[in-house]
Amino acid sequence: MDTKKLRQKILDLAIRGKLVPQDPNDEPASVLLERIREEKKQMVKDGKLKPKDIKNDTIIFKGEDNLHYEKFQDGTVKCIEDEIPFDVPDGWEWCRLECICPYGETETVDSSEIDDDSWILDLEDIEKETGRIVYFATKGEREAKSNKHRFFAGQLLYSKLRPYLNKVVIAPRDGFCTSEILPLKLYGSISPEYMQCFLMSDTFLAYVNLISYGLKMPRLGTNDGKNAVIALPPLEEQTRIVEKCHNAFEKIYTLQSDVDVLENVINLSKFKILDLAIQGKLVPQDLNDEPASVLLDRIRSEKEELIKQGKLKRDKKESIIYKGDDNSYYEKVNGTSVEINVYNDYELPIGWEFARLKTICSKIIDGAHNPPKGAMGITPYIMASSRNIADDTITDLENVRYLNEDSFIKENQRTNVSVNDILLTTVATLGRCSIYTGKPQNLTFQRSVSVITTLIDPVYLKVFFDSPLFQHLINVEATGTAQKGFYLNQLEDVIIPIPPLSEQQHITSLVRKYNTQFNAIKNCL
After folding, report:
1. What order of strands is seen across the sheet that includes strand 319-323?
2. CB 25: neighbour CB atoms within 10 A?
3. Cα–Cα separations (whole angstroms), residue 282 to 277, 342, 504
4. How far apart are CA 353 and CA 500, in angstroms?
5. Which DSSP category does 497 fall into?
6. Average pLDDT over residues 510-522
7. What is the pLDDT of residues 219-251, one digit of tens each?
8. How far apart are alpha carbons 496 and 454 in whole angstroms?
9. FRET label pair with 117: which of 41, 85, 94, 105, CA 20 to 30 Å apart?
10. What are 436's strand-pairing partners?
11. What is the dihedral of CA 317, 320, 325, 328, to 10 degrees?
């Protein structure tokens, strides 16, 4: 179940007057808006507002032709039918946000005037889409130094930065917030909770997403916020809507929590299956299987032939890992054997062997270190952040950038990709793994993608890369400050538990079966 869509459906019904029944005895919203206009005029007389604060107040009404019009204070009237997203029930009214709220007007406080134990709200403390505050921090904890906006308990708080994240909350107590959050004051006892529903609805989101400015960090401009049209129900119906929404959202939250728990169980189960797989505990061993030692001998012979053909360079530190008579593991390099520590908790079954990744592969490379910028061309350039690498397999190139072919001849020779090559993210985002199943061709990658051609079953090697053993290893041993990287020299030396080839195939078949079942369960949530 898509709880986000369910929430939005409820909000959509709420702001269209379809969530709760209308009561003809309710005071109509037109009376409420007239009372707000008189209240604001009195505030001007009392010096609490300036004349400029009400000069843009307008009245939106439906004409005899059934179209919506807006009447301005100078008496002029304009048809605004194209701004009205839907019809509202009798007793409801459309109005500009600035007519019911001094949008953008805030009380700014210097951080030096805020006590260390005062609550400071940042955008990161608000859960997107739900209107829930997930973390409370004090000024002392946050070490806040910039100016803040003051807000009060029960006040509506709206995030104007990246409004598509839908972070709109009701303050449970007094506090201060980042200047990217606007505390909104509402006239005429309008329900902040109802306004929260409207501002979080797809209708309002469509409006702000259309007019927000800024590419990387879009914002809703103050004038655009003021000009937003709001569907306003009678006060009594606002209360009924809020109560209905509150009850529905509590059930949705409980449902989502149950879904999250189940998804976590599924993910843990997947990890456990992968862990059992690379320990030889997922499928029964068959003593008649050709042992992995024979497979490794055959791989060495294949690589020797590639060396003779000039297709592969000889490894000057060729590695052979074996178990000694004392049950300890040793590694033989250039005729010299030294004892090594190999995953102490892993006791390999009979017929299995350990080997360095470079031993079982004919190619381990990363992408271009300094890829030049070029025009559109025919050379695919797959980014590490591309969702291609997040998939189990890559079968197409729909989500790649294309750069000028001529500038990539050298890089193409470096990063040609064949069917069943493994693509592994090894910089910044670590450990995402895919198998390329498209047609053989030259591709160019960023440095953060490593390309691996293995001489064992590539799907089994992917099982290892996805396993908790490797995921822990790559995250713990990655180096760097700004961006963590697990580089080629580290990757080449990773020790892999190698089962007999027949068992590799049994393992991958069973892992696929489990994953299919788990994915079917997830799709039903």
Report:
1. 319-323, 329-333, 336-340
2. 8
3. 5, 20, 11
4. 9
5. E
6. 87
7. 999 999 999 999 999 999 999 999 999 999 998
8. 12
9. 105
10. 394
11. 70
The rounded mean pLDDT for the chain is 87
CA 259 from chain center: how many Å? Answer: 17
Helix runs in 113-201, H state only: 139-142, 192-199
Residue of 173, 164, 171, 116 whose CA lies nearest to 142 = 116
Q: Is the dihedral of CA 110, 99, 237, 208 positive or negative?
A: negative
Strand stretches in 98-212, DSSP E:
108-109, 119-121, 126-127, 132-133, 137-138, 148-151, 156-159, 168-170, 175-177, 181-184
The predicted model scores a pTM of 0.64
Q: Determine which helix (DSSP H) or strand (DSSP E) holds 469, and give its type and residue range.
A: helix 468-477
The pLDDT of 285-307, averaged and rounded, is 91
pLDDT digits (tens, 9 = 90+) for 330-341: 889 888 888 888
* Top-confidence residue, 433 or 181: 181
pLDDT for position 402: 46
Per the document, the length of the chain is: 525
Per-residue HEC secondary structure of 238-270 comes to HHHHHHHHHHHHHHHHHHHHHHHHHHHHHHHHH
pLDDT at 276: 93
What is the spatial distance between Cα 96 and Cα 84, in angstroms, rounded to a whole number? Answer: 11
Residue in 454, 450, 175 with CA at minimum distance from that of residue 302: 454
Q: Shortest CA distance to 321 belongs to which of 334, 340, 303, 335?
A: 340
- CA separation for the pair 54, 125 (Å, rounded): 34
Q: State residue 374's pLDDT score.
A: 46
3-state secondary structure of 226: helix
